[in-house]
Records
---
Amino acid sequence: MSALVIALAGHANVGKTSLVSALTRDATLAVNEAAGTTRSHYLKTYALAGEEVLAFVDTPGFEFASRINKWLDAHGGEGSDRLDGRAVLAAFLEDADTTARHDKEKEALRGVLRADVIAYVADVVLDPEGQVVQEVRLLRRAGVPMIGVLNNLHAGDDQSERWVEMLRREGVDNIVRLDALRFPAAQEESFFVALGVMRPEHGATFERIKALRATLDEQNLVRAAVATAETLVDCLAFQHVTSHGTEEEAKRYRSTANERFKEMLRQREEAGFRSIADIYGFAETALEGESLEVRSWSGAVTDDLFDPDALRRYGVSAGTLAAVGALTGSFVDVLGGFGVGTLIGGVSGAAAGLWLGRRVSTSIDAGTLKVGPVDAVQFPSVLLNRSVDCWRQVARRSHADRADVEVGAGDGERLDPREVQSLIRLARKCSKRPEWSGIGGRPGDPDRSRTVDGMTEVVEALLRKQLAQLDQR
């Protein structure tokens, strides 16, 4: 069976290209606030297992549908000589005298005439009168089944009920709500159900798409967990080592080395954020669109990674550390190796843990300066929770949404005591194996791989809890 061709048509700048982006999960399509971004109709195909099953025709917006309808009425003939809708539209497309004034509309109609279904996209903020009524009447002349799609439902001043009344009055009874800027999963299903009513021969295709979406969601979650675990191991194992002629030279370089150490971790964290965005299809755009930027709440991509606010927002709370102490019986396993000794009791252990969370170890041996690793108490939670913030914003993001991902926009504490215990245990392993860090190298140690697997389990469990909360909203 050939692909079902769906033409998205409507007034200029109502979100037709945005809907194609959302429905195909493609952030590379040109989406712009300026009216008339799409200059010619183009086909965006959707394939399953290498087989093209859907084709979306994105068309330029109509602006003067009433003039076109007048031309069609005047040139359609009368009585037995009257042309049917498609024939008179073909005559209009071939008429050279109307091309200069209606070039974009003609391009839209060419796209419509090649379609199996027309999806008329309505911006519910607009008044459903005047030219938009003329557009619906013009499109119905093509003799192609039409579905009404109500877009921009998030924008306020919603006139969707008036749109429903107008569309039904004009003979369009199949109407769905599908907001391009909101993650389209549930709305998308109603869209495909409506298409299945009009084109039942493609019903199996829509079921396959639904199943594929579920499979991809699962695969992407696991891939995001692995990418986050790789970031954690690289950062937690990292040690910046420099050689100097004397111990005094090493001391003079210590401040610079600390800043270099932090900058390299920031760069690795940023790469982790972008890996997550890429997994969900938000890579660099290809057709004039803008790339998705990942930045922090304060403007720069990772500038608060070492700030005190990062600990307050993302660090492990005193109460959680106290609970970890209750699980272990003491804080010797958590804080060992930092010169604190055995601390019995949750409150004192938690306070020590919070204090240690502000430290990056530095040592000088003759002319060798070593900066890192970061502490294994607070910093793993900071890295993990910031990555989850990034993931949370792209996992349920419409591909028509080009707003920045603002890391730091979400809540902090998301780990229970057992998860914190596992995270700290794995972080301590990393801190003893600087060769595990992929920052500036390509580690291949089997022990590192096992640690990444352990980190992945912690991350994946956290992502699944977050996903359940997102799906409840």
Note: Residues 30-39, 285-292, 296-303, 330-358 have pLDDT under 50 and may be disordered.
---
Amino acid sequence: MKYLCLAYEEESTVNSLSQSEWDSLRKETLSYVKELQERGQPIAVEPLQSVRAASTVRVRNGKLSITDGPFAETKETLGGFFLIDAKDLNEAIRIASHWPSARLGSIEVRPVEAGLKEEKRY
């Protein structure tokens, strides 16, 4: 089954890391991605640009509204994602728990629905 893992961090926390701390975290992350690749589990792993580059789009009553930044009022913002193939939720959670930035923020693990089903909502 596919699971989307959303990595949330506070940009200020990440930006406050020393160069050596950042290099260590990045090296650990790349090593973990390689380990997952060797097991055939990651489908996609992508970082996102800063939340300062984000736009939130809404259409209400046919009118377009664009807001700079994310919609949620939170300190932790979406920093990236990884899409994985895991046998079940427990395995997906285990994989997410080893993601290095989970120590700085949080990883949301969400099952991917197989196709858009007309009869089903969230």
Note: The CA atoms of residues 7 and 29 lie 12 Å apart.
---
Amino acid sequence: MRPLLVLIGDADDWTLPGPCVEMAQGMRSRGADVSLVVYPGALHHFDVEGPARVVLPDVGNRNKPGECCGATIGYDPAAAADARRRVEEFFTRHLGR
């Protein structure tokens, strides 16, 4: 099994963090090397520089029961900086670079 790093915002309404947390826990229980960080208040695209909060009304979103569309994205500079650091550490640790 390959190592996995999951970085997600707890306010993400497009890719819900709950299933990611459950997946990571299940993989860990089977001995997988899984690192998971859930950033408080961070939205989808938290690591993409831009506005702090934008609603995309026309994108498909299966996480909105009774609705077909809509997701919220937004940049979080603190979470983005931490994520970049963690990605660099992850690749250094696992690729030896």
Note: The first strand starts at residue 4 and ends at 9.
